[in-house]
Amino acid sequence: MQLGKRRTFLAAVLGMVLIAPAVIAADIGPLPALKYDEAKAELGKRLFFDPRLSGNAGISCASCHVPENGFGSPTALSKGYPGSGNFRNAPTLINTAYKKIWLHDGRIGTNLDDLTREMITEDYIMNMDMRLMQERLKQDPVYVRMFKEAGYGEPSNGKVRKAIPEYLKSLTSRNVPFDNGTMSTAARRGMKLFTGKAGCVRCHDGPLFTDQKPHNTGVPENFDLFLDPMNHQAFLAFAMFQGIENYMNLKRDPGYYNVTLDKADMGKFITPTLRELKYTAPYMHNGMLETLEDVVAFYNAGGGADSNKSPLLKPLGLSKEERSDLVAFLLSLSGDPLTGEQYVWKEPYPEEYEAVTNWKEVRN
Length: 364
Description:
mainly alpha, Cytochrome Bc1 Complex, Chain D, domain 2, 2 strands
């Protein structure tokens, strides 16, 4: 949707002919539809829920990106590879195909293929040698058939990196009150605050409600990262690989600093999308805020304490009623739950292979 059309949409939703001077010019609006190949997406879905894509077949992509939690993590710090931990909260994958930059620190800014490879091969996440993964897939006649039906030919690493992103394209917001004009009166008041007095739209702009840029908002550290040995060892492995100096003594998540190694970027994180917040608690890169009321209170106070905090953050002075209206607007950005996307994985048994009637034809 073009900028002019989005502003017209904003004015219509707010019930105004023109955007009032108190309202910050915004580029928010509905998301455009995404096209995807259904056969490739169905293959990607099976791969997404398959624990055999991890080194010891112990976890799948869905172990951290849980459908019931908006394809995000229900715990403050996500699971790690068995015998390890993690040091961040897995973000929602709903609408992730619209993004141009991924992960809380923004270290992937190329495409979803590279993001898929990173998650599968990273030792503290899925710890998979993709050469072994390819052989596992070739041993499964259901995959042999599905890869062929998707037009991919024989199972391969490169095709896995294409099939999973194709599935992610199917994970988009559906029947969202903000998009279809069915927001409550409170949500409409909250939207005026969002684009006006509260100034949220300065960073949460665009149809995804994110500028996809790094900011330091003073989110408090989650010290479970350092106090839990499993989480800490994952952090150390990450920091060592990223080339962060003095990482053994570091007691904060460096965020975007690990991309630039510029001290001005210490503690900055990519602005998250505000869509589907209804399902994705807890919030922030480390899960330190449990509810949307907590999030609004945090920003109403001007964010947290950090020497590198963004100058955009100031106390907002919102009343209790205004904070409630702002939460109502944030909830209006969530649509129908995507729990129907769940794929109940089970180890393949011979009866699953009955559809493969001509082995020579499939293998060829």
